[in-house]
Each structure stands twice: as structure tokens, then as C-alpha cells.
Amino acid sequence: MRNILYVTDKVFTEIEFARLVEEFGGLWNTEIDPKQAVISDDPAAIYIMMDANIAAEYEPAELDELIQKLGGQPKSGVDIHIGHGAGSEELANKIANTLIERWGGIIDES
Question: pLDDT of 41-65, one tens digit each?
């Protein structure tokens, strides 16, 4: 399963993230992880999770590179796992673009 990692230097809350998920008709995947949601548009599906401490995911050299790309310290992130159904990639890109429009930031493809 391929994934997209969205990173921003803005802080957004779990409530704000939940609103975004719900805007797209997402459902919380509480059996696996209470912070993971599934957004689908049959047969397309993505699995999405907020990371409120995204900087901790990076090694120091990677973090320095990310700060250069982002123009600031990374503060929040969203990990989008792309399902295998037709249209999943497009759905993931739509969500990623919405995140960028809402909170700025970048897609980290490193």
C-alpha cells in the first residue's frame, strides 16, 4: 500500500482533523486504531491518520531537509495510506490538496 505524507508548520487539533474527515464522509476505524479513519468512494478507499508530533518521525538530517522545504518547523502531519481500489490514488490526492489548501504545508515525498 502506497502512502502520502502531508506535513505543515501549522498546528491543527484533533477536532479540526475530525471535521475534515467527516466532510469527506469518513468513518473512524476504532477497532484497529481510534485515531485512524477510512474515507471511501466505492471502490476507492484511503486510510488516514493525524500525527500531532510529526517532527519526531524524522532523523536529524531528514528533519533539517524538511525544515528547508517547509520553511519552518514541522508541527502537524497526516499519513494517508492509499487503498487498492480504482480511484484510490485520486481520492488521496484530493484529500492531500484539501489539507494543503486548509493548513498550507507540503507533501513529503522523501
Answer: 999 999 999 998 899 989 999 999 9
Domain of residue 38: give its range: 3-108
Q: Is 93 helix (H, G, I), strand (E, B) or coil?
A: helix
Q: Give pLDDT tens digits for 13-25.
A: 889 999 999 999 9
Backbone φ and ψ for 10, nearest 5 degrees, come out as -95, 155
Q: Total structural domains in the chain?
A: 1
- Domain containing residue 10: CATH number: 3.30.310
Between CA 39 and CA 58 the distance in angstroms is 27
DSSP-derived secondary structure for 17-61 = HHHHHHHTT-EE-TTT-TTEEEEEETTEEEEEEEETTGGGGS-HH
Rg (CA), the chain: 14
Cβ 6 vs Cβ 96: under 8 Å: yes
